[in-house]
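WARN  no MSA supplied for this record, continuing single-sequence
INFO  ligand: 2'-monophosphoadenosine-5'-diphosphate
INFO  echoing inputs
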Amino acid sequence: MTDRYAVIGNPIDHTKSPLIHGLFAETTQQAMSYVAIEGPLVPEDGFECVVREFADEGGKGMNVTAPFKLKAFALADVRSERATLAGAVNALKFERGRIVAENFDGIGLLRDIETNLGVPLAGRRVLMLGAGGAARGALLPFIGARPAELVIANRDVSKGEALVAQAGSRGGALQACGYGDLDRMGRFDIVVNATSASLTGDLPPVPPSVFSPDGTAYELAYGKGLTPFLRLARNVGVHGVADGVGMLVEQAAEAFAWWRGVRPPTSAVIDRLAVPLD
Ligand code: ATR
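INFO  complex generated
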């Protein structure tokens, strides 16, 4: 019996998820299929109908990508704390007639930085650029990794402040600021670009003074080569620069382990998907 899974998004042509989950299934010998579904943008409830139909026909789980992460959140019967704080969902499980929702983007990012790049956050100064969905997803896992400081810089400071307020007592080392404040905040060990600026080839207004030469600059976007953010980090001598390929594969591995109860090895898959930065 082959269990059925899918990723739903729109557009969906460029998704790597079927390839990643296919490789995971092969190495862990799981009897499962995984396909890409182009979710309907109209009518308003089109997305919900497709998800429910897939579940009703025996589907076991789905990944959810843009622009449906908020709709998936609204649709779920049960949501994890990570998904709740992110306000967005990237993985669903269908069990006993219920839709259970998770968000593995942040934990995937954390695992890539800590395990694959060998850079633990504990005791480090960490700067996250952006306060949109990607930053929200990373928040709880990052706080749990116990950095000495976790600073969220955003053009719209109130969005960062709202995240600090939402994290409440969990966010002891967390603070929000504007880009203009970064000049006097010194160097950070890890700088993560969680803005959507790279998707349009833009650079967030981050001063070069935030980077440490022996630190790490991490770009969430994947397959865009040396983005303006990574180029800036390189130009000021940062040795450790990485894009989001490892995060992409690690979030998939988290979903796979959640669905199948088996953790797939990731390093060969990351190597296969990695696109040279220069
Ligand atoms: P999402 O759908 O991921 O939540 P979003 O809410 O549009 O997307 O968030 C995108 C993030 O990238 C925001 O933090 C946004 O900053 P603002 O909230 O100040 O708008 C940030 N962003 C987008 N383009 C940017 C740019 N050119 N420079 C700096 N930040 C940028």
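The mean pLDDT is 96.
INFO  checksum written, moving to next record
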